[in-house]
From TrEMBL:
Deacetylase sirtuin-type domain mapped to chain residues: 1-314
Keywords: Metal-binding, NAD, Transferase, Zinc
Protein name per its UniProtKB record: DHS-like NAD/FAD-binding domain-containing protein
Superkingdom per UniProt: Eukaryota
Keyword Metal-binding: yes
Binding site for Zn(2+): 130, 135, 208, 211
Matches recorded under Pfam families: SIR2
Record organism: Aspergillus cavernicola
Length: 314
């Protein structure tokens, strides 16, 4: 029987040195960002994972850029939640704790997670790189939003003032101007397919400033692409260094390899596993045992709670 007992978990946590965490989109759900699978997994009529491929970019770079520009915008407007801060605090207190994140939203970084203890498995929304075969251009920490004017999220025009017979044309125009000036324009939710989204000409998409030829693309790992080899090598070396005490698996459906494979690898190095997930069935590719823990609920609430014995109140 898998435990959900915070007391036994806390005891084990206090005695743990080498700890690894694997994070997925669920940790950022409490910050208002949609996950890939389940509710929120559709972007317009597309499965979000359909748009995350080199083939999708090749065929429809404008659609894929609209998707990623929207995600950049959402991530920039979201704030890290207590789970991000709790893990950052654990990392500051324990230099032998490493976090592997599948998230590209930058929220762990913005919670001041020590960067040398945070390993990005799937890249970062705020890195862009040239798609030309001959060009190696990339730039990091590009937080411009929109990255090019054509990718600005379209806005609703304010409602025109009600028509009234007793207004002169001049007065009507003035009250329209006033309404326009109130800043009440609201962003359209372009993740909803009922909102029309015009195709964009290639010239309007982000281009490489160096070779001037290639389109820029988001610096994330797409399906079918290799994960960054320096990250994989680092994690392999870290795992080989010795026994692992604890593996935290937070807010991931554990469906995507190789990331999901780290849980069983950690187990084979002695780790006890603790899963935090909204869905009690998403416990990873292997079976949890009576030595493990499963905490079901919102990571934003549960992570600070289960780490409290070591990090204190967040
Ligand atoms: P998924 O969308 O597959 O899974 C999100 C997980 O978070 C699910 O298990 C949910 O039950 C859980 N969840 C949702 N809300 C939660 C909350 N408030 N608290 C805790 N858990 C919650 O996302 P990932 O596992 O991250 O890859 O997906 C892995 C990879 O597949 C992504 O990095 C992305 C995607 O396609 C690429 O783009 C390469």
């Amino acid at each position: 029987m898998v435990s959900s007992d915070v007391r036994t978990f806390s005891e084990h946590l206090k005695g743990s040195k080498r700890i690894m965490a694997l994070l997925g989109a669920g940790i950022s759900a409490a910050s208002g960002l949609p996950t890939f699978r389940g509710a929120g997994g559709l972007w317009r009529s597309y499965d979000a994972t359909e748009l995350a491929t080199p083939e999708a970019f090749e065929a429809n770079p404008d659609l894929v850029w609209q998707f990623y520009s929207y995600r950049r915008h959402m991530a920039l407007n979201a704030k890290p939640n207590p789970a991000h801060y709790a893990l950052a605090e654990l990392a500051k207190r324990n230099k032998e704790f490493i976090t592997l994140t599948q998230n590209v939203d930058g929220l762990s970084q913005r919670a001041n997670h020590p960067l040398d203890q945070l390993h990005l498995l799937h890249g970062n929304l705020f890195t862009v790189k040239c798609t030309s075969f001959y060009c190696n251009y990339f730039r990091e920490n590009d937080f411009t939003d929109p990255i090019v004017p054509a990718l600005a999220i379209p806005k609703n025009l304010p409602e025109p003032p009600p028509y009234s017979d007793d207004k002169t044309a001049e007065e009507a125009s003035e009250s329209l101007q006033n309404a326009m000036g109130t800043g009440e324009q609201t962003e359209l939710d372009i993740s909803d397919e009922r909102i029309p989204l015009a195709p964009l000409e290639r010239e309007l998409l982000p281009h490489c400033p160096e070779c001037k030829e290639g389109l820029l693309r988001p610096g994330v790992v797409w399906f079918g692409e290799a994960l960054p080899s320096h990250t994989l090598d680092f994690v392999d070396d870290w795992m080989k260094e010795g026994r692992i005490d604890l593996m935290l698996v937070i807010g991931t459906s554990s469906r995507v390899m190789p990331a999901a494979g780290y849980t069983e690898m950690a187990r084979s190095k002695g780790a006890r596993i603790a899963v935090v997930n909204m869905d009690g069935k998403d416990t990873g590719p292997g079976k949890l045992t009576s030595q493990d823990w499963s905490f079901q609920g919102d990571a934003g609430v549960l992570v600070p709670e289960i780490l409290k014995s070591v990090i204190g109140e967040i």
